Amino acid sequence: MLHRLFMIVGFVTTLIISVFASYNPAFVAENNVAAPSDMCATFVTIHGYKCHEYEVSTDDGYILSVQRIPQGRVGGSSHNRQPVLLQHGILVDGATWVMNSAEQSLAMILADSGFDVWIANTRGTRYSLRHRNLHSYNSDYWNWSWDDLVVQDLPTFVNLVYKQTGQKTHYVGHSLGTLIALASFSEGRRIDKIKSAALLSPIAYLSHMTTALGVVTARSFLGEITTIFGLAEFNPTSAPVSMFVKALCAQRGINCYDFLTALTGKNCCLNASTVDLFLKNEPQPTSTKNFVHLAQTVRDGILRKYDYGSFISNLAHYGTVKPPLYNLANIPRDLPLFLSYGGRDALSSTKDVETLLDHLKNHDVGKLHVQYVKDFAHADFILGTTAKDIVFNQIITFFSNQH
Fold first, then answer.
1. Which of 117, 144, 174, 323 could form a disulfide with 148 if both were Cys (CB 3.0 to 4.6 A apart)?
2. How distant is the alpha carbon of residue 198 from its chain centre?
3. Number of H helices, E strands in the chain
4. Spatial contact of 80 and 113, defined as CB atoms under 8 Å apart
5. Which PANTHER family does the entry link to (predicted)?
């Protein structure tokens, strides 16, 4: 392990030297200016739906983009439709909810089923790259982890929906979108504005994930090393991170020929055109600190706030020598929850979902609904051609039964 660590440090050192040798601030600034959101025009209105763009600011200054599909394609009144907030996972943005055909994309299926659909885009993704005071090429912009999505982004999205509709919202999260929801619910954040939640490929505990690429990334302390060298932004399309990934993929036991499978597990039901469109639009950047936090979750086997690595730093941030735990047993027992997970999911493994369900064992009878889809992997839950019949229709029934 120590030998591998030295190898990676040496690789990173060489990489940083080469990056800074060719560093051009003008190029970085020019290519990190966020363009106005065009998700509605690119993915939604082309199918005949109305779509509205919103911007909302967090208390710590991030300007976030939100899209709204207020009604279905056939029209009808948009008055008093029940809102649903969709929250994407890591390294993607809200476009993943509308990337399939209208008949296969959850956002548009919900709109056609009578819901008022809101699509969130968390900080750092292409539609939410702006800040009141910081540029995205400034390392301070990327000084956040998923703790900040719990405290800032998610409550801001929920408040926007409530302010615009005057109603509690249903919630759909995928992957990291489930983690921040569970953490938020456990701390009672905006819980009074949540009607119910559907969690797809739920992520809370990560000790048993089977993706070789993810395990090696977490176990190698790669995030901490890149943080030391000042790579605050983790952008898979950038030269530094791309080289990191290539180095990981070169390690024994990891086959990245099919990168999506190497990361998420063997998805059963993705068609080629959807994968091509996905790869043209994703992945999206996140912060290196966010990856470090996820790596801590993998290595420590518990769910807690970001560990700053020393007693002194943790005391300064939390008043305790260790970061506080997120206690999922504190999630209100009467909050209706729908969990759907897959037998082939390499990130949200069945063992880790069982651990999550154990923490929810005291949930009120009839308020916790669990679906297991044997053949689904991580991406099938949002992009799978059979997701509508197997999962999405179940979500619609679940939401419709909440009065």
1. 144
2. 14
3. 18, 11
4. no
5. LYSOSOMAL ACID LIPASE-RELATED
CA-nearest of 57, 67, 65, 69 to 35 is: 65
DSSP 325: B
Cα–chain center distance at 3: 33
**Residues sharing a CB contact under 8 Å with residue 389, sequence separation 6 or more, in sequence order:** none
Q: Is the dihedral of CA 227, 229, 232, 236 positive or negative?
A: negative
Gap between the Cα atoms of 101 and 246, Å rounded: 32
Q: Are 66 and 85 in contact (CB under 8 A)?
A: no
* 72 DSSP 8-state letter: B
Which residue in this structure is represented by tokens 């809102």? 83
Of 132, 127, 129, 119, the closest CA to residue 51 belongs to 119
Residues 6+ apart with CB under 8 A from 31: none
Task: Work out the end-to-end distance of the chain between its first and last CA atoms, rounded to an integer number of angstroms.
Answer: 54
pTM of the predicted model as reported, rounded to 2 decimal places: 0.85
**Rounded Cα distance, 326 and 203, in Å:** 13
Encode the chain (403 residues) as per-residue pLDDT tens digits: 433 333 333 333 333 323 333 333 332 333 333 345 689 999 999 999 999 999 999 999 999 999 999 999 986 666 789 999 999 998 889 999 999 999 999 999 999 999 999 999 999 999 999 999 999 989 999 999 999 999 999 999 999 999 999 999 999 999 999 999 999 999 999 899 999 999 999 998 877 666 655 555 555 545 555 554 567 887 666 666 666 666 656 666 555 545 566 566 678 888 878 777 777 776 788 898 998 898 888 888 889 999 998 999 999 999 999 999 999 999 999 999 999 999 988 888 889 999 999 999 999 999 999 999 999 988 899 999 999 999 999 999 999 999 7
CA pseudo-torsion sign 180, 325, 295, 210 = negative
Q: Is 187 helix (H, G, I), strand (E, B) or coil?
A: coil
* Nearest Cα to Cα of residue 371 among 348, 347, 402: 348
Burial class (CB in 10 A: 0-12, 13-18, 19+), 80: exposed
Q: What angle do CA 211, 217, 221 make, to 5 degrees?
A: 145
Look up residue 100 and give its two tokens.
Answer: 């399939």
Is the separation of the CB atoms in 235 and 139 below 8 Å?
A: no
Check if the beta carbon of residue 213 is closer than 8 Å to that of residue 262. Answer: yes
Q: Which residues are catalytic?
A: 175, 345, 378
